[in-house]
Design brief:
Elements (H helix, E strand, L loop, with lengths): L10 H14 L5 H11 L3 H9 L4 H6 L14 E2 L2 E2 L6 H17 L4 H4 L3
Helix pairs in contact: 1-5, 2-5
InterPro entries: SP1917_dom_sf (IPR023204), UCP033199 (IPR014580)
Pfam family, one: DUF2200
Protein name: DUF2200 domain-containing protein
């Protein structure tokens, strides 16, 4: 199976796009960190470390302290694909993160985004 090139992309290279998306839509950029920490279990310090070290998305999720047990409640379409139907576990985690950031950008309530 061919590996998707996004897997070797650094988290640090996509993170500014997430923040910019939130800001462009008038949302608080710290909410981006909040949803990423919720999904991955990283602390803010750990998140800043993986950005500074430019770890790949594959490493980012491999080293994540704990994927949130409610991550499977993230559903819907991102990039034209239903996230709950993605077969590759790593791609699904990346798309979960995309979906959460998208919801921040759309101004959804944080309780809804964090599936609480």
């Amino acid at each position: 199976m061919e590996r998707h090139r996004i897997f070797s992309t650094s988290f640090a290279s996509i993170y500014p796009h997430y923040v910019a998306k939130a800001e462009r839509k008038g949302q608080n950029p710290s909410d981006v960190d909040l949803v990423i920490r919720w999904l991955t279990g990283y602390s803010q310090i750990e998140l800043e470390r993986v950005i500074a070290e430019e770890v790949t998305l594959e490493q980012f999720f491999e080293e994540a302290p704990a994927l949130n047990p409610n991550a499977s409640l993230i559903t819907g379409v991102i990039c034209g694909i239903r996230v709950e139907e993605i077969d590759d576990p790593l791609m699904q985690k990346i798309r979960y993160m995309d979906k959460l950031v998208d919801e921040v950008g759309r101004g959804k309530k944080m309780t809804s985004i964090l599936r609480s």
